[in-house]
Amino acid sequence: MSLEHEINKRRTFAIISHPDAGKTTLTEKLLYFGEVIRSTGTVKGKKSGKFAASDWMEIEKKRGISVTSSVMSFPYHDFHVNILDTPGHEDFSEDTYRTLTAVDSVVMIIDSTKGVEPQTIKLFKVCRLRGIPIFTFINKLDREGREPLELLSEIEDVLGIESYPLNWPIGMGKRFLGIYDRYNETVVRFKGNEEEEVIPLKDIDQDEISTHPVYLDTKGELELLDEAGNEFSTERVRKGELTPVFFGSALSNFGVQTFFDTFLQFAVPPQPRKTDQGLIAPESEAFSGYIFKIQANMNPAHRDRIAFLRVCSGKFERGMSVHLSRTGKVIKLNQTQTFMAKDRETVDEAYPGDIIGVYDPNIYQIGDTLIEGKENYQYDELPQFPPEQFRKVQVKNVMKAKSFKKGIEQLVQEGAIQLFRQDLTDTIILGAVGQLQFEVFEYRMKAEYNVELEFISLGERIPRWIKNEKFEKRFFDSRSMLVRDRFDAYAVLFENEFTYRYFKENQKEIELVDLLEEN
Ligand code: GDP
């Protein structure tokens, strides 16, 4: 198989959603289509309704298969599918954001009963910045949800992306008859019990559904869409400017397969990626990739870690020698893991779009580039994401101050957490995207550096960076706290939206930027 052929087969994507929209349920269906699992429905009965990263481990245990917690990889029809899990719920952290830099497209699930929810907006913004294609699956059509037209306009208004429904629901909840598949020119009848019946549009007049009042309503809506809706454009989908929208029910396994098949057609294979030396095409002969996530072994007896590497160009072969762009160090990649959901555990080869796990004897940092051959370059540095929660931190026992300093330096460099110092007092403030980051930080400081910490919560804050080189410091106080980040750049931590707005109105000469939008 040629390199080009392997690349064109690859579809690497993440599923983003607000908790409970149906990500686990949908992912499970996709794994089922990929014959990774033999039946579905094991996780949905979980009482708490909450699923963490360990869900896949659970599935793995129950089904006796090898699905790792973060990457699910399987062949499907002519494609090679890589699904990257974006940890949500209490596991929400910078890792969640960074994972989105390693995918080529994104599926956004929206709960039809709730519409666009906060966590979806946050994740969506990151995807939007990268200009990657976004596909929308509106879920839970078997329940009474919001009007489809209303949902579309919410997506357009709140997220600022144009939408194009490739299918349209015929009723919902108790009156849910099925979907009108505009793309495949069929009507798919909902029969419950994971059953569906496909009726080609050309035969629809002979079917009783064609005279059903709910179907007639649907046709009215479709006429409206045809006239007033957006034009479909593959190019705009690929640029992330237009999102194809699908309706269905993950739980009833309705509309999921047609969604998946169509999605795979339109989703892009790996594209050229930016480096400090220009674009590198996936077809480039030399293997290259970058590390987007490092997972420490939480077992203190084993200090080893796994670095998650996204292959960006060339072919990876186990045992090959590469160099670490940052330091020039040459490394032989022997201990590598695959995330193939079939039996293999070590990976012998991988192609652009694939994710491999590289054993990390403490030499890698998040964002590191690995390259085969003489050329040297760095994949675009991963953006820092603005933290949302802040805590002052100090060491419990002052005798441990030295280990405290060392531990913080190391963990901050690793990207586990963000470091700030309060201006003047130099008090250390840690910033995180999610709660879990503090917990992991605390745990690792204890386990790896034997340091116990004391935290004072500053709660959720809105960080904004100051662009001015010179400014007066007398306007700041505890509600708009002046801090410096780890690169000594000044930032302000605002107590809430109100203090932020008040400050902006009254201190017009201070120019504030939102890190996320600047990147
Ligand atoms: P996640 O938090 O996004 O992973 O959401 P889950 O997949 O765990 O789903 C959350 C809840 O919604 C579970 O109780 C699911 O059974 C339920 N759910 C998921 N998809 C559907 C659907 O299509 N219809 C209905 N009625 N419930 C669904």
Beta-strand residue percentage: 25-35%
- Counting DSSP H or I runs of 4 or more residues, the number of helices is 13
Shape: globular
Q: What gap, in angstroms, lies between the N and C termini?
A: 38 Å
Bound chemical compounds: guanosine-5'-diphosphate
**Secondary-structure-derived class:** alpha+beta
Report strand order across the widest sheet: 26-23-25-24-28-29-27-30
Low-confidence stretches: 42-57, 59-68, 340-344
The helicity comes to 25-40%
Mean pLDDT, all residues = 87
DSSP, total strands:
30
Largest sheet: 8 strands, antiparallel
Q: Mind telling me the C-alpha Rg?
A: 25 Å
Describe this structure in words.
The chain has 519 residues and is of the alpha+beta class. Helix content is 26%, strand content 29%. It is built from 13 helices and 30 strands. The strands form six sheets. Strands 26-23-25-24-28-29-27-30 form an eight-stranded antiparallel sheet. Strand 2 and strand 3 (79-84) form a beta hairpin. Helix 10 (401-414) packs across helix 11 (435-449). The longest helix has 16 residues, at 213-228. It is globular and about 85 Å long. The protein starts with a helix and ends with a helix. The structure holds guanosine-5'-diphosphate (GDP). Residues 17, 19-25, 44, 49, 51, 139-140, 142-143, 249-252 line the site of guanosine-5'-diphosphate.
Keywords:
519 residues; alpha+beta; eight-stranded antiparallel sheet; seven-stranded mixed sheet; 26% helix; 29% strand; globular; binds guanosine-5'-diphosphate
